[in-house]
Design a protein that fits this description.
By secondary structure, this protein is α/β, with parallel strands linked by helices. The chain is built from 10 helices and 11 strands. Helix 1 packs parallel to helix 10, helix 2 crosses helix 10 and helix 6 crosses helix 7. The structure holds guanine.
Length: 293
């Protein structure tokens, strides 16, 4: 039987409606308009698309947005000076530096420089630490998006075996943390697999919920999952171009084959992707709400 499609586009729309109401309330009660600053270095086409989508989402929701595009040769010193300026700008409540950064810049130095109260990506070590002990104000965008996809599709994680494939700081490690938090957190048993894992299939076959974020198409094939698994595919791989020059996207999971065994699965595009930007908007609003308390 074909799996239930977990439609990120629709769920994201619901959440954006909720966020819009919150923004209106903040304006009416406190006279504050949430503001997000984005910084993009260089010309990477994927990063340009992402930053453009973030800017567009801000405009749609009534969030003030300030975008700075800089050449890839920008020095670390100049980038840090811009971050510091934004830290001190009262119109800006969230700062996002698009990753990856050019090789001559140490991304950790830049992330450390962002005021943790404006770190809407939840990348600063203070926020990563708070996430780990379950006291975070900001939840990281993609992992939080995954939690909402599951929750709003009535898929419980409580007591389930969640297998995560990929140990990135942006998805794998933080989603593991969210899934293992005690109630009202994920309350799941979590296994994290990575490039050092021997016999990946032995682990993925045990998953009740399989979260895949590795950046390689068809990493997960049908023989690697059990019947009834819930699959969350975080991959966004550009596997070609249409005759019109539009990117053709594929996830990390062999969708056509795996959906025959899964009980639910996210499509690519239209699954996790739209949720990441929506949760970024949510964090920008959360940053303002913290100021109003
Ligand atoms: N590059 C890829 N994903 C992300 C993200 O969520 N935030 C930032 N800042 N850069 C990224």
């Amino acid at each position: 039987m074909a799996a239930q499609l977990i439609k990120g586009t629709e769920i994201s729309k619901q959440i954006r409606e909720e966020i819009t109401k919150e923004i209106q309330k903040l304006k009416e009660k406190h006279g504050i308009i949430p503001g997000l600053a984005t910084i993009l270095l260089g010309e990477d086409p994927g990063s340009k698309v992402y930053v453009g989508q973030k800017e567009k989402a801000c405009n749609k929701l009534g969030i003030y947005s300030e975008r700075t595009d800089l050449p890839s040769e920008t020095s670390q010193e100049d980038l840090l000076a811009l971050v510091e300026k934004l830290n001190n700008n009262p119109k800006i409540h969230g700062i996002l530096v698009q990753l990856p950064l050019p090789k001559h810049i140490d991304a950790s130095n830049v992330i450390y420089a962002i005021d943790p109260d404006k770190d809407v990506d939840c990348f600063h070590p203070v926020n990563v630490g708070k996430l780990m002990i379950g006291t975070g104000r900001f939840l990281p965008c993609t992992p939080h998006g995954i939690v909402e996809l599951l929750r709003r599709s009535d898929i419980t994680t409580d007591g389930k075996h969640v297998v995560v494939v990929g140990r990135s700081n942006i998805v794998g490690k933080p989603v593991m943390n969210l899934m293992l938090q005690p109630p009202p957190g994920g309350n799941a048993t979590v296994t994290l697999c990575h490039t050092g894992t021997k016999d990946l299939a032995a682990f993925t076959k045990m998953a009740d919920i399989l979260i895949v974020a590795v950046g390689r198409p068809k990493t997960i094939t049908a023989d690697m999952v059990k019947e009834g698994v819930v699959v969350i595919d975080v991959g966004v791989n550009r596997i070609g171009k249409t005759p019109e020059g539009k990117a053709i996207l594929a996830g990390d999971v062999d969708f056509d084959a795996v959906q025959e065994k899964a009980s639910a699965i996210t499509p690519v595009p239209g699954g996790v992707g739209p949720m990441t930007i929506t949760m970024l908007m949510k964090n920008t609003v959360e940053a303002v709400k913290a100021l109003c308390n």
